[in-house]
Design goal:
Residues 404-431 form a coiled coil. Keywords: Coiled coil, Leucine-rich repeat, Repeat. This is B3/B4 tRNA-binding domain-containing protein. Residues 262-297, 515-542 are annotated as: Disordered. Strand 15 (396-397) and strand 16 form a beta hairpin. It is globular and about 60 Å long. The chain is built from 12 helices and 24 strands. The protein is an alpha/beta fold. The chain folds into 2 domains: 15-260, Ribonuclease Inhibitor (Leucine-rich repeat, LRR (right-handed beta-alpha superhelix)), CATH 3.80.10; 305-510 and 541-576, Phenylalanyl-trna Synthetase, Chain B, domain 3 (Phenylalanyl-tRNA Synthetase, Chain B, domain 3, 3-Layer(bba) Sandwich), CATH 3.50.40.10. Helix 9 (349-362) packs antiparallel against helix 11 (487-510). It is 22% helix and 17% strand. It has helices spanning 14-22, 32-40, 73-76, 151-154, 240-246, 251-259, 271-287, 295-303, 349-362, 407-425, 487-510, 520-523; strands spanning 26-29, 57-60, 82-84, 106-108, 136-138, 160-162, 183-185, 206-208, 229-231, 306-310, 320-323, 333-340, 372-377, 385-390, 396-397, 405-406, 446-450, 456-459, 463-464, 476-483, 543-546, 548-552, 557-561, 575-577.
């Protein structure tokens, strides 16, 4: 009697089932379980994903088994607006090619292993355009040695292009035909030349070419009418004065220098013409002391915004965070710092600070899937802190704007709110805090940061505690960045957070607003001395970033932030004192 043949059951894809059943517009695939399922599917996504014609957003992140999206993507997802395939193993090219995707607006292929994007194995055909509505393209952190020459024709409406951290030696001339391109990031490549054709980008506002192999900057760059932010640090320029300006002056002065021909290059000014221009500029600086033109004035402007790092050896009261090994399998990476000198009292300063944090969560934190930021009022924290994990039944927290609750009940409450919100607004998606609940799926324990009084002050990636809430009188902040992905991501995001905080302080200092009266409770409390807001303080006094040690339970050092290699900020208006 022949044995019965039992068909092997297909790998379960509950996320796809849910989207299909409820006709949702978003699909997110991430987490440890994804690796095995993709590997079983041959290193690609299952065909079922490409049979969801209503899908607007597809995100697949952090899967080292994903080598190619799989056939049928363009044909099966005609309404796709956002495609995020970040941190996978795509490469060395795309097979089959990605497009055409007529509705796609955002494409993120960063952090993969792409080496080339040739015709037939790239983004799609140029005629007709494969990506006619694409506005944002992120190809950073790959291994690309060249960009496709047909990129401008393939995505004619491109506004933001990020190709940083590749191996590019040149930018194709065709790239400078993109009439809507406003942001071009190509730092950390091997670029040897910037073409004068860059002047053909009328909408360009931000250009970052730091850490390349440029020896000259074309004078035509000054013809970009909307250009406001430029970064050429880390390039060995022939014009040493220009190199000095690049490392210390505002973009306005650099562009003006290029506009008049620079020195030793540029638009070919004669020596006499250069001297005449130099004399003219000196006269103008003398007549308008506050014009901001000229190298010395710009350096003075830079010195108005200083960040000083206070080392552990100089700070007997430095904060320490102990890491309990139980958090290793939940959310293992944490980086912390203390920032002193924030001024959140005037006008909308606090609102701007909170909006900035929200934007970082949306952008570089990748909707909290890559990392989560938490900010606390330092004076409300008692150290040392312990970063660990507790069961959902045991973990208790007073969430922002809520009463004390167990983590299990909080998550359930948020899930019910999310479902109710979806029904009321008749949407497929949810907003706010509810979007991050899936990050806890399958977790037996939840991560938490606990102070010396055994009070949970943070429950990443969901919420902070009301106890340590930032108020208008807060000037000294404890910052934490946690991630399930990598320690370097935590450090990079902390760098960006501190830079943004410094920029907010600069804005508050330069735009004298009336003191905010919205937080009456907070305004009734006298805050600590603030380097930026106290009228008797020096105007150019630095903000302080205190090092925070992260150690294991035996006290052995795991992370020290900021270390010598951290806070390598290239913004021209920030000076780091180490």
């Amino acid at each position: 009697m022949a044995a019965a043949v039992v068909a092997e059951a297909p790998e379960p894809w509950p996320e796809v089932d849910l989207v299909e059943r409820e006709q949702r517009r978003e699909l997110l695939l991430t987490g440890p379980a994804l690796e095995e399922r993709v590997r079983a599917a041959g290193g690609r996504l299952p065909p079922r994903v490409f049979s969801l014609p209503l899908l607007h957003s597809l995100e697949v992140c952090g899967c080292a088994s994903l080598r190619e999206p799989g056939p049928g993507l363009a044909r099966g997802l005609p309404r796709l607006r956002s495609l995020v395939l970040r941190g996978n193993a795509l490469g060395p090219a795309l097979s089959p090619e990605l497009g055409p995707l007529p509705a796609l607006r955002v494409l993120d292929l960063s952090g993969n292993a792409l080496e080339e994007l040739p015709p037939g194995r790239g983004l799609g055909p140029a005629e007709p355009p494969a990506l006619p509505q694409l506005q944002s393209l992120n190809l950073s952190a790959n291994r690309l040695r060249a960009l496709p020459t047909e990129l401008a024709r393939c995505a004619p409406r491109l506004q933001t292009l990020n190709v940083a951290r590749n191996r590019l030696r040149a930018l194709p001339a065709e790239l400078f035909a993109l009439q809507l391109l406003s942001e071009l990031a190509a730092a950390d490549n091997e670029l040897q030349e910037l073409s004068p054709a860059v002047a053909g980008l009328p909408a360009l506002k931000t250009l970052d070419l730091a850490n390349n192999q440029l020896s000259e900057i074309p004078g035509e760059l000054a013809d970009c009418p909307k250009l406001k932010e430029i970064n050429f640090k880390g390039n060995k320029l022939k014009d040493k004065r220009l190199e000095k300006m690049v490392n210390g002056c505002q973009p306005k002065s650099i562009l003006e220098y290029l506009r008049v021909g620079g020195r030793g290059k540029g638009r070919g000014k004669t020596d006499g013409s250069e001297k005449e221009e130099s004399r003219k500029k000196k006269r103008e600086r003398k007549q308008k002391k506050e014009s901001g033109e000229g190298e010395e004035e710009e350096v003075e402007e830079v010195n108005k915004l200083l960040i000083r790092i206070l080392h552990v050896s100089e700070n007997p009261t430095s904060m320490t965070v102990k890491v309990n090994p139980v958090v290793k399998d939940v959310r293992p990476y944490i980086v912390c710092a203390v920032v002193k000198g924030m001024n959140l009292k005037p006008g909308n300063a606090l609102k701007r600070f909170l909006s900035m944090q929200t934007k970082l969560h949306e952008d570089i934190c990748e909707k909290r899937t890559a990392a989560t930021i938490a900010t606390h009022d330092l004076k409300l924290i008692k150290g040392p802190l312990v970063y660990g994990a507790q069961s959902p039944q045991e973990l208790k927290i007073v969430p922002l704007g809520r009463k004390e609750i167990k983590a299990k009940d909080l998550v359930r409450q948020l899930q019910l709110e999310a479902e109710e919100q979806r029904k009321q607004k008749k949407r497929q998606n949810v907003s706010g805090l509810h979007r991050y609940l899936h990050l806890l799926d399958g977790k037996e324990n939840y991560p938490c940061l606990v102070d010396a009084d055994n009070v949970v002050i943070s429950f990443p990636p969901i919420t902070n505690s009301e106890k340590t809430k930032i108020k208008t009188t807060t000037s000294d902040l404890f910052l934490e960045v946690t991630s399930a992905t990598s320690l370097q991501i935590c450090k990079d995001i902390m760098d960006t957070l501190i830079l943004k905080m410094a920029e907010l302080n600069k804005f508050t200092l330069e735009n004298k607003e009336e003191q905010s009266l919205s937080d009456t409770e907070a305004d009734g409390v006298s805050g600590p001395f603030n380097l930026q807001s106290n009228q008797n303080a020096e105007k150019d006094g630095p903000s302080i970033v205190e090092q925070v040690r992260v150690v294991d339970m035996e006290g052995s050092l795991k992370v020290l932030y900021p270390s010598k290699t951290d806070l390598d900020i290239t913004a021209s208006h920030i000076t780091i004192i180490r």
